[in-house]
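Reviewers asked in the last cycle whether our approach scales beyond single polypeptides. To address this, we selected a multi-component target totalling 653 residues and predicted its structure end to end. The input consisted of the following lines:
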Amino acid sequence: MRAAALTAFLLTAAPRAPQDVPTFAASVEAVYVDVFVTRDGQPVPGLGAADFEVKDNGVKQNVTLAHLEEVPIVAVLVFDASRSVAGARLEDLRAAGRALLAGLRPQDEAALVTFSHELRVAAPQAGDRSAVERGLDDLEPSGVTALWDGLYAGLSLPVSRGRPMVVLFTDGQDNVSWLGADQVLRVAQESEALVYVVAIAPSEEAAPLPSILQTLTSPRELPGDRGETQSSASVGLRALKRLAEATGGRLWPAGGSAQLGRTFLRILDEMRARYLLSYDPAGAAREGWHRLEVKVKGHRGTVRSRSGYFEPPRAKP
Amino acid sequence: MMKPAEGLAAAALLGLATAAAAQGPSPSFLDAVERYRRGETVREAWSADRLRRSVADLKRLQDQSFPFEAAAMLFTDRDVQERTTDPGQEEVAPQSAPLLEAARQVLELIPDPERRRSFERPWLLAVALHLQQHGQWPLAMHHLELGLARYPEDPRFLLARGSLLEAQGARDLQVASPAGRDQLQQAEGCYRRALAADPELLEARLRLGHVLHRLGRPERAVPELERVIAAPEAKPRIRYLAWLFLGAVREAEGRPGDAVPAYAAAIGLLPHSQAAYVALSHALHRVGQRAASREALDKATARAGRRLDQDPWWGYPWGQSLEADERILALRLVTR
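The resulting structure, written as structure tokens, was:
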């Protein structure tokens, strides 16, 4: 997927190439790969374009690196507003949302989508975050949950410029979405957005799921891996984890709702410690699925980035 | 449904209040029934022991004029008041229902079979839907099976049982449980029997089409859905869902382009609904029409609404349970 929002920004941004910062050339055909590199659990700073090796469908690409300070983040908050959020959880969610807004830089933008059975764009993308703050204030939890439809809306919102980041807050329960996990996964693969899922245990009165959050802290294991009975929430979280990782993001178990603010700020920290690579694809077929492999050359570290991207067929005139 | 003879019932209660103390219902129970009949909200606590005694006392009573229906509804309404889970739940942890069991036993005591059937039949259905509404799926199924044991080809029981099985099947398929497919097949059987009993029951045909789609049998789903769409008597909400499901079948067949007109037809029927716009947006996305897809999504979000009945899809997973309150109210009124 060509990154329209990033391209829009990078083609119009003033050129800036100090000696110690890699230059970044954007073209309308460019593919963007948002990469997070860690060593012993800590972000690895100071890497340049030459430190990365990117293969698109097995073909090595010539990459450049963007200077992230110049690229605005577009934070699309997608929040569960069903009745399971009512009470103290709602106040914690509002506070966490405000903390995230406060952590954004002046050039960053934000939007708010809420979902119960209904989808609502509570605040469209804007640099002025007061609309999002009002949207948080106006949250009135009620009804049942269309989680996948909500995430679809968050992924499909028009993002005019910058690095889109979808922050989904959910307990993994879904009971009335029209769309299914596989359909939204594909949309995510076609999107340029990084998806971060902030997962919280289902509300106390729901079926008890004591193992979900502990298990989610293990990066590769979710309920069901050992054959235990799965709940719809745990299956939903498993699908969300897969989706988030496919975009290069991740699923964060928040523990209790009081930890939401800290979790949101950790996401922002991670966004700022990432690398944004770009290349004009060479030697790869245009349409269809593109498998991406990203490695760090000559350094020890773990790389997290989207596993690939889907180049959809061109619309017929 | 037979309405108990009011004069007889009142006289019976008055007479019994004194005479029955030794071998019939206690005065406090009779007083509660009478207050209930007068339309008061009776908020008394019914311990398991008190319930057992009240039913046992009624069993000793040989009086056809006693308002058994009101006594049953007194217990039923108490269950409605006490049920702690919110309505509109998926399955939640099981709770017991001693009040409903007592109510059912009271109805068994109605001596005249015709009078008993005329109240018990709608009561079993209403209570099953009430329990489903509160996430008590096994108890709801138990009451539906009781109903079907007595009224085997009642299309309303068959439709309700099919809907509950469909909900269970959808949930179990979501968690990749092998039981899900079996439940959907059982739901299919219920809908077919319901249609055999009442070929005009369009909701059963709609759900049959949906279940066949979920079972991966589009060639059998499509004719059912098309029959619903073509039925002149189909209400807009039924026809809307039929178009939505037809679109879903086309998408599942890998024909998102053919789903687009189906979703557009659904929108034409209920322009204020939201799910059809989401469906349309996604289908357009799949065929690469991104601008049109976003436009449809904009329209979807412009149609946000809190009321579950704004979009028939939002209530679909809950099946007939959305009728529970209305059905219980009808029973309540007939006893007063």
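DSSP finds eight helices and 15 strands in chain A. We regard this as preliminary and will revisit it once experimental data from Aim 1 are available.
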